[in-house]
Amino acid sequence: MERQSDSSLIIGVAASTAERVELARLLGEADALLLVSSADQARAFLELTGVTIAPSSALMAPTMASTTAQRTAPVAQPIRAVPEPVAELRLDVDRRVVRWRDREMPLTRLEHDFLHCLVTEPGRVWTYQRLHHAVWGNEHLGHGSHIHSVVKRLRQKLSNLGATVTIHAVRGVGFHLLPTA
Length: 181
Known about the structure:
Blueprint: E1 8-13, H1 17-27, E2 32-36, H2 39-49, E3 77-78, H3 84-87, E4 89-92, E5 97-100, E6 103-106, H4 109-120, E7 126-127, H5 128-136, H6 145-161, E8 165-170, E9 174-179
Parallel strand pairs: 1-2
Antiparallel strand pairs: 1-3, 4-5, 5-6, 7-9, 8-9
């Protein structure tokens, strides 16, 4: 029997970057948040990860009202399993080491703290601001080149381990950990 997850995934569908940023702001405290620009992207993600949803669930694109105050978010559908490749990635918080199967790679403090955020809630989109606060301990100032530098190094280390997961960017919003395509 399949074990049910203790968390839910909210899939936000919004055509523009501004709408996705607003959804991230509104739903930033969700257990897991995936923001996409079309229902087809959401379906492709679900197929890619092998996540199953309740048979009665339907993937629905949200309707965004013209004013911010009236905007509504899509209803969260429960995830029935953590994507298998993501579940295989292990982070040793005491030694600051990432493990993939029988291989491991040392991490810097920033790499460790950044990856720790993503590993604890796989699939969840972490906004630039939230990551910056969690990793650097202060507010995100906007340019983000230091964030992208950490992401670049982590992607390379995950690739060197042979991991089938990587850090995906959600343009204008943030990052999340997903299986590689």
